[in-house]
Specification:
Layout (H helix, E strand, L loop, with lengths): L1 H45 L4 E6 L6 E2 L5 E13 L9 H8 L3 H13 L1 H4 L4 E7 L1 H10 L6 E10 L6 H4 L2 E3 L2 H6 L9 E3 L2 H5 L1 H4 L4 E7 L5 E4 L15 E2 L4 H11 L4 E7 L4 E8 L4 H4 L2 H10 L8 H4 L9 H11 L13 E4 L2 E4 L9 H7 L2 H12 L7 H14 L21 H8 L23 H12 L3 E2 L21 E2 L4 H16 L19 E7 L7 E8 L6 E7 L9 H14 L7 H9 L10
Parallel strand pairs: 2-10
Antiparallel strand pairs: 1-8, 2-3, 3-4, 3-5, 6-7, 8-9, 11-12, 11-19, 13-14, 15-16, 17-18, 18-19
The structure holds zinc ion.
């Protein structure tokens, strides 16, 4: 028994030794391979006079919407390259005609190359960019008459659907600083995503360049392929991206928002997937394909179409924020839903009054949400800040601040969209600095009761609030890219973030939102215009002060009430009451998403929204 054990141990050792030798051998082989390859590469680089590198550009990944529709594709275009060293005397007129340019254009280019001949050496220069196939074909037929000139295939972006220029972003040529940022990846003449999804997913989309190597003969003409193409590297296409966007709804939202300044964000509550994100006025996709040509026009536009209001504009939320204060009051136990508070055109304090519109009084919580009563929510905020549980207003305020942050406000949500803004929720320290420690109380910050004052939120924040309410207490960070075979998204986009308010409290607020929409005209409900039979929309209007002219019109809603499929936030600058513009726009978007078509009866409203032009109300400087 013992001998056998030793034998088997010995053979085990033998096996290990053999394995070790094999590994060493493999490493050595690998090294030889690497040395040879590197050697060859070195030779290729060093002997640039006889080698010609032909860059093979990869096709950029395609961008899809959530239903598999291509929203950004590729089409073929051609660059015309010139290798000045190879050029022989040629018929300038014939070439200019074929390329559709003036003869002087070609003469100037050739003169320029001649001046810089030392620097250029044997390199090829891009003389013309992104020619459409029909122009290139004219050139290709006569190319043999023009040694030193050749076409190079490039794929450029193509936009089959008008699905949001700001969202998709643009691709343009890299500059020196961009090349330096990522050494070895880009070179002059390459393209890269600069904004939107194109920028956010650049590393997935770009793919890898390849090259074909050719040899020159003694007359500087390209003759053969180096080593029969053995040393060539093929281009690797970029990964396709599947977005969370519903292209049809995105496009529809853009049509509704045309000639208005503002933003629309729609989210699938359960997943945090962004269904549509509109910033108006935005960049039209027709400009994206050749952004260089339109760049100065875009930059000069006083309405700043490049600015993505959905994630970069910080606004006071207005009355939609009453939901937040209501939920906090419920959780703290300082708000009893059945408790009625009076409102006679507002909430008086000292010699002041925070005004409200005309409505019946007193109201309970559901009615106060349904009618958007300012006075009621002053009581709600007062009771939160004067809660005896806390020894000071400051302590109660800090708790309020924690609740608000737990709903995603006052910070970047962490979406996968570039340049997201964090907004602002004031801290007790901020008021201490202004009024001194202990020098402020509820009435000092009374405007926070109705979402005014120092609060700044983005449309993405309020859409996320709406999704949180729809989910009865949690949100998933809003995002625009989905998992797909080639691209895995960050796991954080699958996690639920629970707020500090219990699920059971949300039901009480939702009842008020349901009644705001579904109580019928004349009931006092502020959002009756949003009601669609069978869709069970729950919503909250908002009208937020805008120091530059008319109030901003705000509306958030989700539908259906149970198992919600969509949560929407609409923010229209200088559009007055929430119910006038934001509310119909949001409800049309919900209808489009859930039913794919707009009811005949609602067509006049659709028409009115699309035709409405509010641009003259917006001050641009
Ligand atoms: Zn009121």
């Amino acid at each position: 028994m013992r001998g056998n054990k030793e034998d088997s141990q010995q053979s085990e050792r033998g096996k290990k030794l053999l394995l070790g030798l094999v590994v060493v051998a493999l490493i050595l082989l690998g090294k030889i391979f690497v040395i040879q390859i590197l050697d060859d590469r070195y030779k290729i680089d060093a002997s640039n006079n006889s080698m010609v590198y032909d860059i093979v550009y990869p096709t950029r990944g395609v961008i899809y919407d959530r239903n598999g529709k291509v929203i950004v594709g590729n089409k073929v275009a051609y660059d015309i390259l010139v290798t000045p060293k190879e050029v022989e005397p040629f018929d300038t007129l014939l070439l200019a005609d074929a390329l559709g340019v003036d003869q002087n254009f070609i003469r100037d280019k050739m003169a320029d190359y001649h001046r810089n001949r030392k620097r250029i050496g044997y390199q090829s220069m891009i003389m013309m960019k992104q020619l459409p196939p029909e122009v290139y074909m004219r050139f290709a037929e006569i190319e043999y008459k023009f040694p030193g000139f050749k076409g190079q295939v490039r794929s450029i972006r193509d936009y089959p659907i008008n699905a949001g220029g700001n969202l998709l972003g643009y691709v343009s040529e890299v500059d020196e600083s961009y090349i330096k940022k990522d050494p070895g990846v880009y070179r002059s003449g390459d393209y890269a995503g600069k904004t939107g999804i194109e920028a956010a997913r650049e590393t997935d989309l770009r793919g890898e360049k390849g090259y074909h190597i050719y040899l020159r003969n003694s007359h500087n003409q390209i003759q053969t392929r180096y080593k029969n193409g053995e040393m060539d590297r093929e281009a690797v296409p970029g990964h396709d991206i599947v977005t969370t966007i519903d292209a049809e709804v995105q496009q529809y939202g853009q049509e509704l928002m045309q000639n208005k300044v503002g933003s629309v964000v729609a989210i699938e509550p359960e997943t945090g997937e962004i269904l549509a994100m509109i910033s108006s006025p935005g960049i039209d996709v027709s400009m994206l394909a050749d952004i260089g040509k339109h760049y100065s026009e875009i930059i000069k536009d006083p309405y700043k179409p490049m600015f993505n209001r959905a994630v970069q504009a910080s606004y006071p939320p207005g009355s939609v924020f009453k939901l937040v204060n209501g939920l906090i009051g419920l959780q703290e136990g300082t708000l009893v839903p059945s408790m009625r508070y009076p409102c006679y055109r507002g909430y008086p304090y000292g010699s002041h009054k925070l005004g409200c519109h005309q409505h019946r009084s007193p109201l309970d919580l559901e009615e106060a949400i349904m009618m958007s009563c300012n006075g009621y929510f002053c009581y709600v905020m007062r009771n939160i800040l004067e809660n005896r549980k806390y020894s000071t207003t400051e302590e109660a305020f800090n708790k309020w601040h924690d609740y608000v942050e737990s709903m995603g406000f006052g910070q970047k949500l962490g979406s996968d969209f570039p340049a997201e803004l964090g907004g602002n929720i004031p801290t007790s320290k901020y008021y201490d600095r202004i009024y001194g420690k202990g020098g402020w109380k509820f009435t000092t910050v009374i405007s926070l009761s109705i979402g005014q004052g120092e609060i700044g939120v983005t449309p993405l924040h309020i859409a996320n609030l709406c999704a949180t309410v729809a989910n009865r207490g949690y949100y998933v960070i809003p995002h625009i890219v989905k998992d797909s075979p080639g691209v895995k998204i960050d796991p954080k986009y699958h996690q639920r973030h629970y707020t500090m308010v219990d699920t059971t409290q949300y039901r009480k607020v939702i009842n008020g939102m349901w009644r705001a929409v579904n109580s019928g005209f004349g009931s006092g409900g502020t959002a009756s215009i949003a009601a669609i039979p069978g869709l069970d929309i729950c919503g909250k209007t908002g009208t937020a002060q805008n120091p530059r002219g008319e109030d901003n019109s705000v509306f958030i809603c989700f539908a259906p009430r149970n198992h919600p499929k969509i949560a929407v936030a609409v923010y229209v600058e200088n559009a007055g009451f929430g119910a006038t513009w934001a509310c119909p726009i949001a409800s049309l978007l919900v209808e489009k998403y859930l039913r794919r078509t707009i009811d005949e009866k609602r067509k006049p409203m659709e028409e009115k929204m699309m035709q409405g032009n509010l641009m003259s109300r917006v001050k641009t400087n």
